[in-house]
Amino acid sequence: MKKIYRIAIISTEREKFFRELEVFHNHTFLDLHKAIQTACDYDQSQLASFFILNTNFEKTMELTAAPMYEQTALYPTQWMGEYKLYELLNKPMQNLIYQFDLFSERSFIIFLKKISPAHSTDIVPRILRSQGVPPRQIYRGESHIDNLLNAFSEN
Q1: Whole domain around residue 100: which residue ranges?
Q2: Per the structure, how many domains does the chain have?
Q3: Global pTM value
Q4: How far, in Å, CA of 66 to CA of 33, rounded?
């Protein structure tokens, strides 16, 4: 039976920012990424990652927006298009980190608020609540980001 996941999104940067989305449990993390980007009016071409957390809120896995073939992290890194939500997110109040700005390590805290049965008339993903202004997305191509990347590549 198809289920609907109600997802809550908060920011540590913007106290009044809040988004609540609904997605199907069998959507991929890439689908959720696109829904979050749309809900925040962000440019979807920018890099982002989900981090799966254990019960101690330690990162155990990274899901990237672009396929990664080299494992360099302390935890497994996979492409977010390969995983359905229910495979890694299946308990109410389970938390994730969604890093929408990899260069500055800026992120949202995401939690699975509710799981409910889906109906044939449900149209998802959809935004249920939208409060506050999201943190500004910093684009690659802005001079301070390009300068930082150039400094790393020169060393």
Answers
A1: 3-154
A2: 1
A3: 0.86
A4: 12
